[in-house]
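Sample entry (215 residues):
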Amino acid sequence: MNRSSTLQKIGWFVFAIGAIYMLGSGWLYSWWMVPAIEQSGAAAMDGLRGMIWGLSVPLGVFIVAIGAALIGKVERRAFWLLVLVTVLFVLWRVVGTTSRFVPALFGIGGGLITLFFLGSVLHWARMRPRLSQPAKTGTDLSMLGLVFFVVVAWDLCGIFGVGNFVLRPELADKFTIPLTSTINAATGVLILLVLGWGFTYLGQLKSRQAQTGEV
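Predicted structure, serialized as tokens:
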């Protein structure tokens, strides 16, 4: 058994650990953890159990990515860069960022998201004519997924900022924003996220079929 095959097997093991962590703690255990938080508040998240649950999806995503990198035979430099990013990400999640609401920060972030989206659309438009029909279908679906993600970003602005003022409770009280408005917006965000990830995944499947000649 060569080294590459061994690393791939390790990758499958790491991938499975990350997936179990995400699904088991991040999704399944949330059915018990969320009601506990609703009853006890932040105290329910104290201790090791709360930390393990709180990091389940954020850390699980990187564990899955590391496993997938081994499966996909990613170059050594790229692999260790991913590990470094994982460590820095966990430290950031533990330490946190800021407790102050800085509107300009969200404005800059929104502008960058828009620019990145426009760049992605232009890249897609220029690349698409040179692709085979099956490959075109894959990129079309992935692009549709990006469209939904951008709409999600906009709707999140409406939830946290101007509109529902979740981050500005004094304005929410001043303008008597009904809870139903926030619930409606949050439900819409969830639907758009599911659509975005769904079309992105379908696009990847179609692109893979185009590369391998599968039907």
